[in-house]
Amino acid sequence: MGDGWIILGRVSGLFGVQGWVRVFSHTEPRQGIINYKPVFLNRRGEWQSFTIEEGRAHGAGVVVKFAGYDDRDQAATLIQSDIAIRRTQLPPAAPGEYYWADLAGLQVVTLEGVELGTVDRIFATGANDVLIVKGERERLLPFVKGQVIVEVDLKLGRLRVDWDPDF
Description:
The protein is mainly beta. It has helices at 72-76, 100-103; strands at residues 5-15, 20-25, 39-43, 46-50, 52-58, 61-66, 82-86, 107-110, 115-124, 129-134, 138-142, 149-153, 158-161. A 7-stranded antiparallel sheet has the order 4-3-7-1-2-6-5. The chain is elongated and about 60 Å long. The chain starts with a strand and ends in a 6-residue tail after the last strand.
């Protein structure tokens, strides 16, 4: 786990004339992104610390006011910047629960010991989360504990799955 970066969202556009920006948030709930202090924005390939002065849900997204960004021109310089926190800013996951960031990079192995590859990324669907596993080919595995996902071992860096390798 360490102290890596966890991407929480991205500045997607301007909102009004007083320095507010629209944010596309990956957090659940979406406005949860405003609770992290500090957040870090990737500016020209470098992570810089920012303070969220105010923020709120707005429509399907979130609007945010960063400290020191008080007009539209200043805020425009933030558009398309990723918003992240350090992994250590997250509280420990509850027993049996995992942060997506902790699953990325895990080796995926079937119950029979066949290696399918590693978890590349995860995305949410209406029914359940889906793991994208990259090996000799890409596979999409539903994250259904007890059925498909048999064991998550973060210490060994391994995910054991009940999955047909031909699928």
